[in-house]
Amino acid sequence: MSNVSHAGHDLAGHPDASEMRDRYARVMGGRDVALVDGPVFLVGLYCAISPWVLHFTTSQTTLVNHNLIMGIAIAVLGLGFTVMPQRMYGLSWAICAMGAWMIVSPWIVGSSPDMGVVLNNVIIGGLTLLLGLVCTGASLRSSRRRS
Which residues contact 17 (CB under 8 A, 6 or more apart)? Predict the structure, then answer.
């Protein structure tokens, strides 16, 4: 039997080490905010179902449709970050805009919303804005590295 143990051996001296590093960098390129993809998706899902969670479907019908559409859009962007990260990180600024819109939307779209509805949208909007800023920052960092 041959000894296949690699204990104590360093791959730095391997002849293909630089090629393996380059391949790893290509495969993982654009995945700087891999931990943000899931939370963006989850915030979008919660935004879409929040009218039914907080039971404001009868009092704020226009805001129900608004939150459903915005939630689906945020969740689709989150999925896009997972599936096509290099193409989608250019749209990180859109998540920031959607977050800012979610913060002010209860007063613009809704009709005299109560405090629960306002807090719900402000929290969703704040989280979306924060996650969008993280995505934008990572996108800028990765584009600087590629330049």
Answer: 11
Q: C-alpha dihedral over 54, 56, 105, 94, to 10 degrees?
A: 50
Cα–Cα distance, 129 to 93 (Å, whole number): 9
* Secondary structure letter of residue 127 according to DSSP: H
Collapsed DSSP state (helix, strand, coil) of residue 2: coil
Q: Is the pTM of this model over 0.85?
A: no
CA torsion through residues 118, 76, 92, 136, sign: positive
The b/e string for 93-122 (b: 16+ C-beta within 10 A; e otherwise) is: ebbbebbebbbebbeebbeebeeebeebbe
pLDDT in tens, 23-47: 766 655 545 556 788 899 999 999 9
Ordered DSSP codes for 26-62: HHHTT-TTHHHHHHHHHHHHHHHHHHHHTT-TTT-HH
